[in-house]
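Sample entry (115 residues):
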Amino acid sequence: MRGVLMSVGLVALLGLSACGEPKSETTAAAAPAPVKSLGRQQQFYAGQEQLESVSSATISVDKSGALVMHANASAPGAGYTNLGFLRRIYAGPPKDGIYELDVVGDKPAAGAAVV
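Predicted structure, serialized as tokens:
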């Protein structure tokens, strides 16, 4: 009787071990982790807010050697003024050499009429 139970248990274990999926299929479907920014935002001034999205941007050099930046961005509503850029703050130079900027503007006063 003991031998019969041992053989049934062995057959059950072998049957269950064949049910597992190969690990190569499950690890191949994992998405890569998103790249995290190492810069932190600069403090906004009173009334300043980050714009929603930037559709295009250009950088050029003027005659004096200064960088001139232009960005087309969408705001949460109409009436934003004093549009500009705020740079991100880094502990050291970024590893990829790319510095990030935030596009910001002064949000309109509550109840202001939009023309």
